[in-house]
């Protein structure tokens, strides 16, 4: 299995600590277990920031980073080994495993955190944490601070600065290392295979969930624990619902099906959309819309390179889509004016992409100092233009209504431009029709 090597976690912690103020402390909690319904839990997914710094896969854990601390800069609080619990729920690293396998300098039982952590915070000037994202943890943090304050008369020194960790950590996460790109390539490779399989399986009379099952099969077979987000399998007019998740309609001859799905490998997402005809052959109208979306995506790729800014790719898609809609008669008027008045938003209402990484909509600022961010090597993003003609749009001829097309690929910025990670699944009309014909 391709995964992030242990040394990389060490490197990340060191890089973060190098940016922290002297005499400071960073504290991050693991994700909580989420209850699905009585006695049933959701599949556990580690918090992305926590995972990024530790690779530690368990709940009920807290990372503490203290740059310059003599007795160890990295302390991990975690669950203790417990024969009874491990019999029911599986193995735990325990404090020994935290040190031996996960590189902690020191580890303590999570049940002792209230006794130990105030002592680690005491005397540090500044606390970094993900303030505001975990109310329960924020409350605990204030309790630990209050323990120190209550001892002020004994000379205890509570910190007086509380700083959001996000700014430092999320900027680090925005730049993908070679190891991260390798994992993302693997997630992309498996997701491409899943889309190919779903295309080959596509038949009128099946259900949207039948194709979802084909995706899930490839995801799991490839070693992915789960999809990176709820798979969207949207046929016919459902393709015009951007985050459609019902996935239970019958696939009909003559309809398109839009699948937006990607798996997650070692907590790195892939995010692919392909749109194809249920029965393998595009109609004239479907093809006309599809070709515009595809051309707009090509135009966007050309705008992704170092020194181009974040919005250039989006602007390129807006230009091509608006001109294309005018050509088909779906919009009337001057292209520049239609762009200025945002008339295209009736058909293309989302942006061309987002950062991609451990979170499918990954962290990282899109603007810096009020200006669109300039792209740099190692940034990963999606390119996902679409055209959606609402089934209720009375201002276009009936033949166009209910057609929804999105095409989405994942890219990493390189020195020369960008590497497309998701090229392994057909995209042109001819390629898609050929693949589907071969599967009949
Ligand atoms: N799958 C959600 C998105 O494409 O952003
Ligand atoms: Mn997507
Ligand atoms: Mn996306």
UniProtKB/TrEMBL annotation:
<dbReference type="Pfam" id="PF05195">
    <property type="entry name" value="AMP_N"/>
</dbReference>
<dbReference type="InterPro" id="IPR000994">
    <property type="entry name" value="Pept_M24"/>
</dbReference>
<dbReference type="InterPro" id="IPR007865">
    <property type="entry name" value="Aminopep_P_N"/>
</dbReference>
<protein>
    <recommendedName>
        <fullName>Xaa-Pro aminopeptidase</fullName>
        <ecNumber>3.4.11.9</ecNumber>
    </recommendedName>
</protein>
<dbReference type="InterPro" id="IPR052433">
    <property type="entry name" value="X-Pro_dipept-like"/>
</dbReference>
<keyword id="KW-0378">Hydrolase</keyword>
<comment type="similarity">
    <text>Belongs to the peptidase M24B family.</text>
</comment>
<keyword id="KW-0479">Metal-binding</keyword>
<keyword id="KW-0645">Protease</keyword>
<keyword id="KW-0031">Aminopeptidase</keyword>
<dbReference type="Pfam" id="PF00557">
    <property type="entry name" value="Peptidase_M24"/>
</dbReference>
<feature type="domain" description="Aminopeptidase P N-terminal">
    <location>
        <begin position="4"/>
        <end position="138"/>
    </location>
</feature>
<dbReference type="GO" id="GO:0004177">
    <property type="term" value="F:aminopeptidase activity"/>
</dbReference>
């Amino acid at each position: 299995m391709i995964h992030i090597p242990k040394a990389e976690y060490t490197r990340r912690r060191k890089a973060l600590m190098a940016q922290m103020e002297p005499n400071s402390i960073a504290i991050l909690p693991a994700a909580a277990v989420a209850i699905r319904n009585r006695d049933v839990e959701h599949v556990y997914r580690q918090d992305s920031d926590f995972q990024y710094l530790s690779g530690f896969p368990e709940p009920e854990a807290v990372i503490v980073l203290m740059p310059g601390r003599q007795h160890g800069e990295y302390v991990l609080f975690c669950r203790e080994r417990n024969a009874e619990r491990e019999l029911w729920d599986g193995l735990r690293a325990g404090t020994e495993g935290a040190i031996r396998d996960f590189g902690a300098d020191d580890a303590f039982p999570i049940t002792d955190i209230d006794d130990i952590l105030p002592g680690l915070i005491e005397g540090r000037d500044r606390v970094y944490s993900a303030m505001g994202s975990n109310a329960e943890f924020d409350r605990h943090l204030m309790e630990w601070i209050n323990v120190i304050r209550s001892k002020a008369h004994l000379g205890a020194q509570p910190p007086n600065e509380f700083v959001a960790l996000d700014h430092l950590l999320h900027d680090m996460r925005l730049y993908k290392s070679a190891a991260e790109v390798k994992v993302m390539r693997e997630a992309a490779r498996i997701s491409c295979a899943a889309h190919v399989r779903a295309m080959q399986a596509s038949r009128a009379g099946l259900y949207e969930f039948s194709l979802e099952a084909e995706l899930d099969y490839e995801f799991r077979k490839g070693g992915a624990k789960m999809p990176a987000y709820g798979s969207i399998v949207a046929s016919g007019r459902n393709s015009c619902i951007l985050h459609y998740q019902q996935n239970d309609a019958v696939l009909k001859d003559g309809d398109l099906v839009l699948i937006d799905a990607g798996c997650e490998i070692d907590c790195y997402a892939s995010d692919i959309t392909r749109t194809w005809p249920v029965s393998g052959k595009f109609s004239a109208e479907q093809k006309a819309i599809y070709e515009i979306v595809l051309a707009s995506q090509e135009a966007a790729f050309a705008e992704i390179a170092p020194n181009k800014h974040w919005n250039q790719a989006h602007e390129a898609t807006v230009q091509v889509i608006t001109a294309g809609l005018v050509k088909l008669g779906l919009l009337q008027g001057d292209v520049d004016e239609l762009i200025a008045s945002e008339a295209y938003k009736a058909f293309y209402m989302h942006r061309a992409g987002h950062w991609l990484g451990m979170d499918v909509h990954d962290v990282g600022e899109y603007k810096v100092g009020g200006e669109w961010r300039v792209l740099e090597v190692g940034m990963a993003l999606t390119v996902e233009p679409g055209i959606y003609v609402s089934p209720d749009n009375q201002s276009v001829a009936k033949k166009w209504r209910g057609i929804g097309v999105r095409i989405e690929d994942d890219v990493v910025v390189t020195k020369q431009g960008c590497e497309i990670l998701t090229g392994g699944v057909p995209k042109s009309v001819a390629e898609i029709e050929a693949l589907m014909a071969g599967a009949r």
